[in-house]
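User: Teach me something about this protein's shape.
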Amino acid sequence: MAAKTILIVEDDAPILQALVDKFTNEGFDVIQASDGEEGLAKAKEEKPDVILLDIVMPKMDGISMLKELRASDWGKEMPVFLLTNLSDMDKISESVQIGISGYMIKSDWKLEDVVKKVQEKLED
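Assistant: First, the predicted structure itself:
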């Protein structure tokens, strides 16, 4: 089976590196971006199988990137998981309306749980 490609868009370097290492060790091809603008460009160029997306980032936040992604034909069905420090229900409910596969509040999750959620979604 071919490796699945994940795009991780996260501006916090230690968190980004931990996610990249974990998904690489689990057999994923990993693409990384450190802000929403770069993430959107890489998503359009690489068309990954799944995206892990931080909400609060410089240049373009995760909600704006998600809206742009959903506006394109190929991005409508893209599985996207949001990672956030926010327990901001307004942002979360807005993103649910746009269409996400799930969200995780950073302080509540372990790397294994993130990988497991992504793998389960890709097996659907």
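Now, about its shape. Helices lie at 13-25, 36-46, 62-71, 89-98, 111-123. The chain has five helices and five strands. If you'd like, I can walk through any region in more detail.
User: That's plenty for now, thanks!
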